[in-house]
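In this section we walk through a basic example: taking a raw amino acid sequence and producing a predicted 3D structure, encoded as discrete structure tokens. The instruction is simple. Fold the sequence below.
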Amino acid sequence: MDAPVEDPNWPHDVRDEFARNQQNGVIGSTLVSESSRVRVWHIRLKPGERMPFHRHALDYFWTAMAKGRSLSHQQDGTTAEHDYEIGETFHGNFAVDEYLYHDLENIGDTDLIFTTVEFLNSANGAIAVPDEVRLNSARTAA
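The resulting token sequence is shown next.
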């Protein structure tokens, strides 16, 4: 897979974070459950909040739990905006050494809320995540 490419027109702090977070596996706000098969994340971004760059390496899906609007800086140097509908779902699947690397900013006027599930039996290994993103129950369910 090609190396991630930043856009020189992105704000300086976004470009710095892009370079720094290449192996960030924190793909949600909170890891609410983890087993030998899956990780379940909740994501909640208030208007104006932004989730830092993170890498999706495991097969996964997300479902939007609320309407909303986002802006995302992508690994290919592009920037994308998206409008979400309640129940909208996206599935991502990756071959060995494939991944998705991006950030996510809420540019709407409502909270962005998602549930995301990662499958640990994917072609790529799981990226370690720090304990502070786990709910107490997720720390003991593994």
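Looking at the output, two observations stand out. The first helix runs from residue 12 to 20. The helical segments are 12-20, 136-141. In the next section we compare this with other chains.
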